[in-house]
Amino acid sequence: MKKVLTAMGSLAVATYTLCANGGAWQTGVPGTGSASASNKDRHTDVTIENETLKIDLYPEYAAVEVHYRMRNTGAKVQQDFFFPVERWGKNPDADTDAKAADVGHYRMTIDGREVGWTNILGPKEESSETTSGEIWEQNVSTSESWKKSVIPLERNQTREVTIRYTAKYAEQSESVSDDEHVSDAAFAYSLSPAATWKGPIGKGKIEINILHPEPEDVSIEAPKERFRKISDTRYEWEFENLEPTPADDIRIIAHSKYDSYPTGYSEEDLQRHASYVIRNDQYFLDHTDYDATASSTLSAQGKRNYDVVNIKADSQRELQTPWCEGVEGDGVGESITLDGQGRWHRRKHHARC
Predict the structure, then answer these.
(1) At residue 174, what are phi and psi to the nearest 5 degrees?
(2) The domain 25-255: what is its CATH number?
(3) Which residues contact 282 (CB under 8 A, 6 or more apart)?
(4) For residues 87, 89, 91 and 94, what is the CA-based torsion angle, rounded to 10 degrees?
């Protein structure tokens, strides 16, 4: 499969629709969570004997895989299984309702066999987070939802349940004229819904892997002092007999907030599409004034070309013009070289063809 690189400078176009006079918006999924026995206060005889959770942090999303070993201590039952997904509500600055974000590639298996699910929507709640940057100070509502499945369980039966999905990082952003303010890009996973099962979680292990190029920019906001740092790109937390509460819920900052300002409005500035970026008291120059060379390039196909210059696509160019290496096989060892200074690498910059 050929590997391609899309335009680094086009994140704002790919993710957001900017308004000439500014605006506010949100993207991604505010939070997901451990499976619950019910979306209401109901009795269950099913316990979680073991839970293992792996969270892989990629440049623009998290990939999650969670395994449960569940045992029925009561009578034969068709056990409801609710997996929570939090969604943004209506943006107070938006004229129309945007389509609610959801997790991607959601799959659930029981003993290795895939099962179906349905979406269940819950009530809206006001978010406790009110600002994305320096200007937007309006509450944004969120709403609960669940992906509901059913697990058939005989008395004393043990079953292995696996959930896999991807979730784009949650961000709140705003623009005033050409100034842009982007909040922390966060991933949240709540362990507390697992308290609806019978008894504590017997044993558990949570693993966080940082698979994007800025591990130093990642921070685990919550829970405090639970995770052990294994390396610069790996954290682990192991526990026994955990009765999870909101204090155990996980919040990770995958990318820290930043502000972006144009360098000027002259013809030269507009052609360079340059801006100053401020992040964590550091200053960067984001521009496309650099040379790019590639070790190989895929030949043009019809009107579509795959030249390395495509990675410098500006806001007027569609994202259907990536660079693609041109050798046989998977392209292992092929590369591009950027010759310039002051470049700040935005978050979203790669894809596959």
Answers:
(1) -155, 155
(2) 2.60.40.3680
(3) none
(4) 100
Q: How far apart are CA 128 and CA 141, in angstroms?
A: 9
Q: How far apart are CA 203 and CA 240, in angstroms?
A: 4
Tell me the β-bridge partners of 304. Answer: 301
Sketch the domain layout of the chain as residue ranges.
Answer: 25-255, 263-352
The distance of Cα 207 from the centroid of its chain, to the nearest Å, equals 16
Q: What is the DSSP string of 142-193?
A: EEEEEEEEEEEE-TT-EEEEEEEEEEEPBEEEEEETTEEEE--EEEEEE-GG
Q: What is the pLDDT of residues 302-350, one digit of tens each?
A: 878 888 877 766 543 444 567 888 888 888 888 888 776 544 444 433 3
Phi and psi at 131, nearest 5°, equal -130, 150
In 16-60, the DSSP E strands lie at 23-27, 31-33, 46-57
Instruction: Count helices and strands (H / E) in the chain.
Output: 2, 26
DSSP codes joined into one string, 184-219: -EEEEEE-GGGGGSSS-EEEEEEEEEE-SS-GGG-E
